[in-house]
Amino acid sequence: MNHPLVERIVQGDRRALARALSHLTDGHPDKDQLLEALYPYADKARVVGFTGAPGAGKSTLVNQLITHLRRSGHIVGVLAVDPSSPFTGGSLLGDRVRMSDHSGDPGVFIRSVSNRGHRGGMAAATREMLMALSAFGCDAILLETVGVGQAELDVLHVADTVALVLTPGAGDAVQASKAGIMEIGDVFVLNKADEPGAKSLLRALQSMVHERALWRNDWPVPIVPSVATSGEGIAEVWDAICAHQAHMAKRPDAEQRAQIRRRAHILSLVEMELKERLRKSATANARWRDLIEVHKELSPATVAARLLQDIDQMLLPKTPENSG
């Protein structure tokens, strides 16, 4: 399916790309047609996710990687997901100041996007925005997540490689013993490696990797020290990322992993649409409105159970077992 914005994006029109990204995040009426036109560009670029606690230096690290990638001739796209204001829904941080060095580079496109309360450190439209950047010609897309700690797992379903950024003196030695975010990293980046405590954190991470045999998909997770402010270790970080992607490309389950990612994408779209429809039904459906607003003698759990029964009757196929 052709679309005028996509045709301009493919030709390198930055203004068309910016407009398309806004359509995707704002729920423009043209969004479905835009997505159909963008779909052929899905999974064309390598996507690297950078996650970790706030203050770990993710933005500085990404900024240095942009410079490194541009020297190698890559076209780079950056999505920096910022936390949203609970009052306006807008981004609290806006465009990343640390990445302003690349604002005049035609081979770099940087976009800050609000997560709008979406859990997991990601924006709801992230997958769609990646397709737009791919259509623009980006062959490397750096995805910086909000940085919400142990719950920041959505990046695992979007990025080809997840780089977990850790720093000394921020409780990371304790976090290293926990499940969750530590288990999604394909590459550990020990940033601020010149600060006190870096060596002890390195030993703690090495011990954890050794004791748990922390391998993901037969991949031994590397620990790469870096000092993002000076650029030290940046080339090694990218080499580790490339090595991981080369490793994954050789695995026999590539098609299965692609199908799992596609399934997660589809279900996330269905989930978002269902939430919106449920919100509208709470006021438009007379029975639901009555249950929620009138029958205050019923506990919220009871009301929720009755609403779920209504949903089951609408969704489940008619069989002798559930027809009653």
Note poorly predicted spans: 84-95, 116-122
Q: Would you report the number of β strands?
A: 9
Portion of residues within helices: 40-55%
Largest sheet: 7 strands, parallel
β-strand percent reads 5-15%
Identify the overall geometry.
Answer: globular
| Number of discrete domains | 2
The helix/strand order is: HHHEHEEHEEHEHEEEHHHH
Taking all residues together, what is the mean pLDDT? 82
The CATH level-2 architecture of the largest domain is identified as 3-Layer(aba) Sandwich
Description:
Belongs to the SIMIBI class G3E GTPase family. ArgK/MeaB subfamily. It comes from Alicyclobacillus fastidiosus. Keywords: Chaperone, GTP-binding, Hydrolase, Nucleotide-binding. Residues 44-273 form the AAA+ ATPase domain. The termini are far apart. It contains eleven helices and nine strands. The chain is globular, with a radius of gyration of 22 Å. The chain has helices spanning 4-10, 14-26, 31-38, 58-71, 126-136, 172-175, 198-212, 234-249, 254-284, 286-293, 300-315, and strands at residues 46-51, 76-82, 108-114, 140-144, 161-166, 187-190, 215-216, 219-220, 223-225. It is of the alpha/beta class and 324 residues long.
Structure summarized in a few sentences:
By secondary structure, this protein is α/β, with parallel strands linked by helices. It has 11 helices and 9 strands.
What distinguishing features does this structure have?
9 strands, 2 domains, 11 helices, seven-stranded parallel β-sheet, nucleotide-binding, 324 residues, Rossmann fold, single chain, globular, two-stranded antiparallel sheet, alpha/beta
